[in-house]
Amino acid sequence: MIQPRLTSVLLFVAAPVAATLHKQSTPPMGWNSYNYYNCDPSEEIIKNTAEALVNSGLAALGYDYVTTDCGWMTRDRDGDGRLQWNETLFPSGGKALGTYIHDLGLKFGLYSGAGYYQCGSVDLPASLGYEEIDAQSFADWGGDSLKYDNCYSSSPDVMVNNSSPISQSPVRHQKMAAVLDSVDRDIAYYICQWGIGYNVGEWASPISNAWRISNDIYNSWRSIWRITNEVIPYWRHTRVGAFADMDMLIIGLNALSPEEERFHFSMWAINKSPLKIGAPLAESAIVPAESLDILSNREVIAINQDSLSKQARLILRYTEEEWDLWAGELSDSRMVLGIANWKNETQTVSVDLTVVGVQEANARDVWAHEDLGRLRGAGTWYLKGHEMKLLVLSEIAKPPLAPNGTGFHAAENATLSGSAVVESCAEDKCLPAGSRARYITSDSTVTFEGIASNGEGTKLLGVDFINYEIATDSAWQWGSNTRNMTVAVNGGRAKRWAFPISGGDWAEADRMFIEVDGFVDGDVNTVSFAGFGDSYAPDLVGFEVFE
Ligand SMILES: *[C@@H]1O[C@H](CO)[C@@H](O)[C@H](O)[C@H]1NC(C)=O
Ligand SMILES: *[C@@H]1O[C@H](CO)[C@@H](O)[C@H](O)[C@H]1NC(C)=O
Ligand SMILES: *[C@@H]1O[C@H](CO)[C@@H](O)[C@H](O)[C@H]1NC(C)=O
Ligand SMILES: *[C@@H]1O[C@H](CO)[C@@H](O)[C@H](O)[C@H]1NC(C)=O
Ligand SMILES: *[C@@H]1O[C@H](CO)[C@@H](O)[C@H](O)[C@H]1NC(C)=O
Ligand SMILES: *[C@@H]1O[C@H](CO)[C@@H](O)[C@H](O)[C@H]1NC(C)=O
């Protein structure tokens, strides 16, 4: 497989807390009350949903954590400083609810926050400063997991402050990890810090089972693009027992078309996100049967729960054409391919298996439940609007000749115009060059001369870039976690690509592959990068042509 470069993957600083909290090796699955019931859960809702999980067969497929999100506790702690379940909403209390859930063969998911007050409230107490007492209560009630949020973390007056260094700091979440680890019950820990600040995967993956990487999912198709572009760099941190959480599934909420629900489920599954249902399963008139079928797809669940726990990688992006090629390793030397049609119209695309390191393989079309026989070389695929095709490849034969890089071209050696400048970076940053061009706009270019091409036409380029423009405040509008950059060859048309988030800060690069036309034979090509529209391009570290 052509692989984006390994950057500082092996260089993390060890976290202060031991990794003993990893309770589940594969991504957590279950249901959470927030997406439909907001911060208004009740005992009846939780019990009815737990029963519906069992009766629908979803529990048997692995959806076993039943989580009561915000809104369960009273305004006042008891005389011993303990959180109390609101008796109006939960007349039987937390321990009885835990028993009820356990008796159904399910697991009891709890929720609190690392701040003064709870999210979605103005006065409900959260766990900051009460970590030991609360962790003991969670254990006493029979809790099996804790989702730990991040509201009112810097001040009792401000619910969400994404730019506050206190809100961004790992310290409060690390504290709860250590305390949970010391109670006498296995409680899986799901950090919900929203991916703000820096290097969240580095500090969260050693201490939690799953960590949220983004602002909340919004019940609309546009969330799928935004969160997908944010999860991409977490391939460095996702592993057995540690998963980047793309947030709850909006399947069955009548927010997406069935095709879009399959796309959403596919994208979450191959990225090894936890699979948390948000639909009101107990209200059968609301959840379409087709949505239940999608959530129940055993083959897609098996991809998500594969024992290797390898996050898929974005392999090739075609932004103007609006589709991506994804690939991920599976156990037994298999591979999953994802062909994602971001366009809301049908299109036929061509995929050459050699770019994912495959000469030929047996293929199964997962959503079609169809074995396609042996595939080799380039093939065309018909995609419906917003369809994501999933193929599982097995019995893979590797090609004798995979595409090779023909030498790296550093932006520091390019000719700059306009506002673009080259800066050098700290050691091990802006890899592989150690420097990058910044402030690339539509009026400024980064131009490379004398680029070699073996033959004319379309070439595969690996582009090393940096983008850390995180959509937090803009997340529910049109924030996309991308930056546009154009590429023009030999004075041809400047074509646009959307570059996703590259790493954990403004100096961690990733590589994205693109196909660019217009090359001529010989050492004579000019390749020019530029911004697009009113906003900056990603920083450009350099690129390489593959033959
Ligand atoms: C319990 O919940 C009800 C309904 O939301 C609310 O009116 C009441 O104030 C809550 N009680 C306490 C003690 O927080
Ligand atoms: C958010 O935090 C920043 C940095 O600490 C601070 O300057 C700003 O005033 C805070 N915003 C609010 C609304 O409190
Ligand atoms: C996709 O196209 C369909 C049919 O034209 C339309 O109803 C739907 O609103 C479009 N979806 C989005 C997300 O734009
Ligand atoms: C790629 O490099 C390998 C090793 O140097 C070489 O054997 C192979 O022929 C090259 N492939 C192509 C397509 O040039
Ligand atoms: C960039 O230019 C320097 C100085 O001319 C040269 O030593 C180096 O090899 C070049 N690097 C790349 C990656 O082109
Ligand atoms: C990238 O360009 C597209 C097409 O013009 C536009 O819709 C999108 O908003 C741009 N994205 C950014 C982050 O500027």
From TrEMBL:
It catalyses: Hydrolysis of terminal, non-reducing alpha-D-galactose residues in alpha-D-galactosides, including galactose oligosaccharides, galactomannans and galactolipids. InterPro entries: Aldolase_TIM, GH, Glyco_hydro_27, Glyco_hydro_b, Melibiase_C. GO terms for biological process: carbohydrate metabolic process. Residues 1-19 form the signal peptide. The keyword Transcription does not apply. The keyword Manganese does not apply. Residues 321-393 form the Alpha galactosidase C-terminal domain. One of its GO terms (molecular function) is alpha-galactosidase activity. Keywords: Disulfide bond, Glycosidase, Hydrolase, Signal. Its EC number is 3.2.1.22. Belongs to the glycosyl hydrolase 27 family. This is Alpha-galactosidase. It comes from Monosporascus ibericus.
